[in-house]
Amino acid sequence: MTGKKTYFASDFHLGLKAGTDPASREKKVVAWLNAVAPDAAEIYLLGDVFDFWWEYKKVVPKGFTRFIGTVSALTDAGRTVYMFPGNHDMWIGQYLKDECGVEIFREPVIRNLNGKKFYLAHGEGLGSKDAGYRVLLWLFRNRTIQKLYSMLHPALGVAIGHRWSMNSRLGKGISLPFMGEE
User: Most buried of 54, 119, 140, 168 (most Cβ within 10 A)?
Assistant: First the structure.
């Protein structure tokens, strides 16, 4: 029987090669998912679960095995897992839905939970006045550009994505330390 609690988390940045070791970061996320599983009815993952995720038709990104297995076990056990792609993993396609049972939301949603109204989204670009960033988001979401990018060999495409993510973060002086297990 599933629990009654709803959990929210975001910005795991699985695969990030700065700060915490990527495998260690993934193990901590999996430990948290396993800890909340007994009383969870729903888990909302509100974007940037992956530091970079590009979904090719026939190739699954390397890594994330523990996370993907844990999420699959949660949905198999009757927990509902929702995911909102963020600006680092906006290219999530059907794999997590079809293979793992994750429900994907590409637009913000409003949920009434325990008598309270929640506006749920990752939030990238919401209300941003940074024209450069808004143009970048448009480019990243452009179907033609995505089609061209998907023609790159997966080893090259993923390497470019990880390098872009790292350079963007370093250029802004952003670090993502692990904030604890609670």
Answer: 54
> Alpha-carbon distance 168 to 173, whole Å?
9
Please answer whether residues 56 and 77 qualify as being in contact, where contact means their C-beta atoms are separated by less than 8 angstroms: no
Start-to-end CA distance of the chain, whole Å, equals 24
What residue type is 133 in one-letter code?
A: Y
- pLDDT block averages, 10 residues each, the chain of length 182: 82 84 92 96 94 87 92 97 90 92 95 93 74 81 88 90 75 56 57
Handedness of CA 128, 15, 17, 24 (dihedral sign): positive
**Tokens 């960033």, residue?**
133
